Each structure stands twice: as C-alpha cells, then as structure tokens.
Amino acid sequence: xxxxxxxxxxxxxxTLAAIGLIAVASGCSTSDNNDATNxxxxxxxISLDNDLEGGGATFEHDLGSGITLMTSFSxxxxxxxxxxxxxxxxxxxxxxxxxxxxxxxxEAEVLIESMHADVFIDARKNLMDGIKxxxxxxxxxxxxxxxxxxxGPSEYEYTEVFSIxxxxxxFMTGYGYYMEGYGRSELSEKRPTENNLRKDAKxxxxxxxxxxxxxxxxxxxxxxxxxxxxxxxxxxxxxxxxND
Length: 244
Hints:
Helix content: under 10%
Largest sheet: 7 strands, mixed
Number of strands: 14
Shape: elongated
C-alpha cells in the first residue's frame, strides 16, 4: 500500500466534550475507544514524498500473456495540501492497457467488467479507524458487451469519478437512570469538526481500496478469462497532536 503524507499544519482546538455514561459514534460502542495497535503489521505501507496532485498515484498490473494494465488516481481541482476528512471531494480513476517496449498495443481484448471503490477513515483510535466514509460501484448493467473496453482493438481509456461525501456522522452522548417507577434520561448530539476528528479521534487520513475485475480474451480465443486485483493507497494528514 502507498501512503501519501500531507504536511500542512493546523492549530489545535478544544476537545469535544463527552459528558455522561454512553458515547456512540457511527454505530460503534465505547469498547472500541482504545488506541489502534499493530495495524502497521497487517498491510504494507510505503511512504512517498509526493501526493495525488503531484502526478497522482499510479499502479502497474501484469494480466499475463504480456499484457500490462495501468491504473491511476488523482484529485484535480482539490488542494491536497489541505486534505480534510469533512470536505466533499472527487477522485478521478483511470485505467488503460500499456503498449509494449516497441510501442505496440497487445492484440488481446481487455474489458473492465467492474470496479468497486471504498474510502475509509484511517485513525489511531479504534473508535474511528476503519469506518467506511463512502463507496461506489461501476459496471455495465445489461446489453451484449460484458465490460468497458480498454485494450485490444480498442485503445480507449477507462475513466470514472468517485465523488466522496465529507464525513458528517454525529457524535451522541447521554445518560439515564430508572428506579422504583421513576427515571430520567438525557441525550445530546454534536456534529464533529475537522479538528475534533484529528485531536479526539486521532484521525490521520483516508484509506482508499479499489477492487478491479478485468476480462481478457486472447487472440484466437472465443471466451474471456477474469483477472481480479486490488489497488490500495492512503492520503495521510498530520493529526492535531503533531501540530505543536
């Protein structure tokens, strides 16, 4: 996995008050409110000195039989130096078969059968870490064509836009009691700000996971075979506690 670190500094703000006996965020219980540990051991993350706007993130995939598919991601028109979890933004997704060393395109027919994209919140606390912020699917829904052409007789490029909604789930705090037929309860809710997410939940960025299903039909064949793979990368922000 690739990690893109954004180094813009932000001023710290007051912490989000959580008064009472119950705290819920996006359906998660308080038992998840411990610091995330050893997450780095689960996935390889590579630090790069660039970001999405500085050329984007590009991945190379070997489909076999000398066919290479290039996938790339960028955020045109968005200031990635000020990447914010609460902002709505768009990621542009592209895929195209690469020519060989002689500049010749492979003759195989290559189709994008489907593309599924998820964006998650990346945080140091389990309360927020791994929450799915947005998702999308792209595929043909009928007709005689099983996918989007990106290679072979066609030299078209696959393009899609992943429109991401800014995170806006509400934190709820409250308490209640009941005794001998009498009780009382109170519940309040507060929408988190960008600085609340960074300081209290230790949010450190967005993780992207894109699942591709690609159909390949070699010259002389009458059927397709499928190749599946995943692209993963992280756009990292500096948490509030690091902005001293």
